[in-house]
Specification:
By secondary structure, the chain is mainly beta. Helix content is about 0%, strand content about 55%. The protein contains no helices and 11 strands.
């Protein structure tokens, strides 16, 4: 059974930091591209950052310079360090795993709430 379990969300003041974690089980972690998405109320889910098994990463424009994705293949865990948080970053953050080779099977975590107060 595949499980992606996010943790680390919470309430933080603007300018603060949070570190999200996503622990994966039931998949060959190092064969998956790991992604963080977020969805704010009334908005579409959007990609925050991606990281390949070798560490190549991509961050959305809004995340550049503030957020950093990383992974520990030995611990089957992906992280999202979020600094200089803004109220606009308030959303549910989701972990996503996509198999790098076909079939491009995709799995989602249940999400973790991040709330940034002004």
């Amino acid at each position: 059974q595949v499980q992606l379990v996010e943790s680390g969300g919470g309430l933080v003041q603007a300018g603060g930091s949070l570190r999200l974690s996503c622990a994966a089980s039931g998949i060959s972690f190092d064969t998956n591209i790991m992604n963080w998405y977020r969805q704010a109320p009334g908005k579409q889910r959007e990609l925050v950052a991606s990281i390949t098994r070798s560490g190549d990463n991509h961050h959305a424009d809004f995340a550049l310079g503030r957020f950093a994705i990383s992974r520990d293949n030995a611990r089957n865990t992906v992280y999202l360090q979020m600094n200089s948080l803004e109220p606009e970053d308030t959303a549910v953050y989701y972990c996503n795993a996509v198999r790098a080779a076909p079939p491009r099977t995709s799995y989602w975590g249940q999400g973790t709430q991040v709330t940034v107060s002004s």
